[in-house]
Specification:
Shape: globular
Number of helices: 9
Structural class: alpha+beta
Largest sheet: 4 strands, mixed
Number of strands: 17
Helix content: 10-25%
Distance between the termini: 66 Å
Strand order of the largest sheet: 15-14-13-16
Radius of gyration: 28 Å
Strand content: 15-25%
Length: about 475
């Protein structure tokens, strides 16, 4: 009896204690479900980017044009908010990527026993001496001045002497960037779930017994130093099967200035456009779709490393989808054929051009420039974005097919196809937008779709990056 009385008294005392705490607590819920509170990380404004708020437009041409074999193909689409580079990626910014790749290779070699094996350039153990996944030590500077014999061999191994001019220069063939991308879209698809019971929810049908077949891209460098790319098709074994590996040579094709134009004296651009500091603020060209994606991946990692733990919350830099690009270029206005109002590429009252393009046959300079212009030379559109028409055409992430508009959703539309090396070449086309310095006024319209092969490098194609915004709208409340 004493024990039972003790239990009863203790229970009553506990209930009273809980009641007194609940009545005085500012976190009291009174037994109601109120949700779980959570802190949210405030995203800083990305450097050099403009916020494009969510919105909707009629994308594509709204009027047919028999002269240009253009048919009316407009349809309503909506896109969520994203950050976008206010200008095209410049030579200066792309050089930062190239130099980072150069420095990472040199650090790898400084740590290599074949070049002296300085362990300070590569971290392979934690503070307690336990082995970890090796990574480069960027706090250890490269001895550009006064290197010892081994260090000099490591540094010079990335350079060559031009056999014609005798000038010491970077060896572009060695500037390869390796990166991995997890394909969230394929990994999330119901048909790719490891648990067969979660692939098919219809209980009238039998549980699938087959193993899902997946494709993943992989790459390596063979003994001859060549990049080998391969698409593997096999049965699903785990999440790792959605991790794709790429190795991309990052140096722009400076010879595009000659190869794009027969019988034209463009040699000075080959020598100077990317290397001369006077072109630093001009858009980078000679960059393929594959190289632009590699840049976006590096840019993401570069930012995340600087943010430490908070870097995990950052949405990745990427190429814009075709829908995002068109919405941004037209400043969210369905009636705009260009990034500005009206159908003319210049002001009526003063005759000033809105963009860098080819005004007349053989006359490239009437707008003030022969080839590309410095980014931001012309006025921005209403979203604050420069050069969304002309200067250079821009890569998008969207794959091209003749019926791409009919294959995509009207919400955040995107048609993605990662072509395997073995695929027919026509399946490796990607959409480019905006027209360039070599195009006539019609071809710099914001509502017109063009394409190029993903491995091509052109003197008139560049790119800019976007990043999905971390933010949420409150919505429009009903008011009486």
């Amino acid at each position: 009896m004493k024990t039972s009385k003790y239990i009863i008294y203790a229970a009553i005392a506990g209930a009273l204690a809980l009641y007194s705490c609940a009545s005085g607590s500012r976190h009291a819920t009174g037994g109601e479900v109120t949700g779980v509170s959570a802190s949210s990380w405030s995203e800083p404004t990305p450097y050099g980017m403009v916020l494009v708020s969510r919105g909707s437009i009629k994308a594509g041409p709204q009027e047919a044009d028999s002269l240009w074999n253009l048919r009316a193909d407009a349809r309503g689409i909506s896109v969520d908010a994203f950050w976008m580079d206010e200008t095209e990626v410049t030579n200066s910014k792309y050089k930062q990527f190239v130099f980072w790749v150069r420095d990472s290779i040199i650090r790898e070699r400084l740590a290599d026993p074949a070049y002296g094996g300085n362990e300070e350039y590569k971290i392979e153990e934690d503070r307690d001496g336990n082995p970890i996944k090796p990574y480069l030590n960027w706090s250890k500077p490269i001895p550009w001045r006064n290197p010892n014999e081994d260090e000099e061999r490591a540094i010079e191994s990335l350079y060559r002497i031009n056999p014609i001019t005798g000038v010491r220069e970077l060896d572009p063939e060695q500037l390869n960037y390796r990166y991995e991308v997890y394909n969230h879209t394929e990994a999330a698809k119901r048909k790719h779930r490891l648990n067969p019971e979660r692939r098919q929810y219809n209980t009238d049908l039998p549980v699938p017994t087959d193993v899902p077949i997946i494709s993943k891209d992989t790459a390596w460098i063979n003994d001859e130093g060549e990049i080998v790319r391969q698409t593997i098709t096999r049965g699903l074994t785990g999440d790792y099967d959605f991790l794709n590996t790429y190795i991309v040579n990052v140096y722009p094709d400076t010879t595009a200035w000659i190869n794009d134009f027969e019988n034209a004296y463009n040699e000075p651009y080959v020598r100077m456009y990317f290397s001369h500091g006077g072109y630093n603020d001009y858009p980078v060209v000679g960059v393929s779709w594959e190289q632009a994606n590699a840049f976006a991946n590096w840019r993401t990692d570069y930012l995340r490393r600087s943010l430490g733990r908070e870097g995990m919350y950052i949405e990745p830099y990427r190429l814009p989808t075709e829908a995002e690009w068109e919405f941004a270029a037209r400043a969210g206005e369905s009636d705009n054929k260009y990034p500005w109002e009206g159908d003319l590429p210049l002001t009526e009252e003063r005759g000033c051009y809105y963009a860098n393009f080819k005004p007349h046959e053989g006359n490239y300079v009437q707008d003030g420039h022969l080839i590309t212009s410095r980014v931001g030379t012309y006025a921005p559109n209403d979203f604050g974005l420069y050069d969304m028409a002309g200067n250079v055409s821009e890569w998008t992430s969207t794959a091209f097919t003749e019926s791409v508009s009919h294959l995509t959703s009207d919400m955040n539309p995107e048609y993605r196809y990662d072509a395997a090396r073995e695929d027919p070449y026509k399946m490796k086309r990607k959409i480019v937008r905006g027209g360039s310095w070599k195009d006539v006024a019609h071809n710099i319209r914001s509502d017109i779709r063009m394409w190029e092969y993903q491995n091509e490098q052109r003197s008139y194609i560049g790119f800019r990056c976007v990043r999905s915004q971390i933010g949420f709208a409150r919505g429009n409340k009903y008011k009486k």
